Amino acid sequence: MKYKQAFNRLELLTGKEALLRLNSTHVIIFGVGGVGSWCAESLVRSGITNLTLVDSDKVCVTNINRQLQATTETVGRIKVDVLKERLLAINPSASIDAQCRVYNRDTADSFNLPSYRYCVDAIDSLSNKVELLMHAHSAGCKVYTALGAACKLDPSRIKAASLWKSEGCHLGRFVRKRLRRRNFSGDITCVFSDELLPNSGENNSVCGSGQCFCPKSDNPDFDWCSMKKQVNGSVVHITAIFGFFLAGMIVKDIVEVKSSENLKVI
Fold it and tell me: Domains in the chain, start-ordered, CATH in brackets?
């Protein structure tokens, strides 16, 4: 890897062999918003050099409070493109594949998930989330999923567990219900919080009501704002910790492999 000095502190912690495994492992992240964007940055700063980013959205002014790539200068730009620029500024020798696309049942097979060792699910859409979890698991990826990160303030209540054992999270309950309907019983690790706060403020930007600030999608079939039944409040120290948790579990899993023979490197 070029710019080896930049990863000196990482190598001191993990050792050279583990760093080489990090360099050669392929990861794909679906959704690079408040959770996925911080996960991506953490992975690249932790030695991952083969990363695919999938998201169909553009940066909205309402993203600025919690999404890594969202600034007053990037509003209206494609999220994955802005994030790719940021990640390459951290490690110019990294291979970052930015795909401005939607993951759903119709596009699932086009992502070639068997070519990735790890899959991160940071998708908001319930139906697409369930589809991805089943597809990635059957493809042999090690899957980590983020449950609901909105309506929370207490970072001490964030934890990781089996998806089947998450507690106090409405999204987790809905995901499990749909997975059971499709007879899925695989074990997937999730990040969740059992905290649930109500929205307290007045919202003068109501997605789906014609009063939304968000840039219009180039594809009207995937205008996510018009599909939202409710917009929930969120804060960066929660969404970022969710993202760091996801990245941390991947890094830990790679570092703890005793032999590269035990790790599927693509």
Answer: 13-201+234-262 (3.40.50.720)
